[in-house]
Input
Amino acid sequence: MKWEELLQELMLVAGFASFGYGLWMVHPAAALVVCGALLMWAGYPKRRVG
Output
């Protein structure tokens, strides 16, 4: 893994964490629902075409 890809992944995690924390400060229940949905969407395997 190149350092550019590693940096991109780290920035993605940091952005997700800061988004979740900011949403938690506004409305904790919404933060759990939205961040949980984003994690599920990111964790599903890609669809196979064909």
In short: The chain has a mean pLDDT of 87. Residues 3-26 form the longest helix (24 residues). The two ends are 30 Å apart (CA to CA).
